[in-house]
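S.,

Sequence below, as promised.
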Amino acid sequence: MLSNPNAMSGHIEIVKHDGFQDCGNIISISGDKMQSICIKSIPHKEQRYETCGDWFDDENGVTQIRVCDIGNPDFELSVSLHEVIEQYLCKIAGITDEEVTAFDDKWQKENPKNTDDEPGDLPKAPYYKQHKVAVAIEDIFLKACMEERYNKTFRDHLKKEKSL
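The prediction came back faster than expected:
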């Protein structure tokens, strides 16, 4: 139960790299306070390091989420959801962006040719549990997108056949 019913007025806005603007809020309740989160889709080369999604808190305490612009809104939103969930669970657990980034950087330096694995999948990662929860939710979301698109395609096909 939310103790502040007005906190439900937040929204999410994903901003493409060619149209930077102020971001909206996504609901993330900590007591009575809503956490501000800015999600931006950017070119891969603009990521802080080799990743498809990243999170950090800026100097104003706003959580910044950066996902690679890959031209597929389902995939970009799924990575965004992953990052939001992972960040929030890390915050609750007291795991900082600096700890996550240090682990990721170290792993990437030790495994420069490994572009298939994610450091968060390693049980020794400080954010392993949080990453795994985020992956599970990301997978559920992607399966739901695929099912919706499949069902829409099937419904559209049936409508087209009936009209012939």
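The radius of gyration is 18 Å.

Coffee later?
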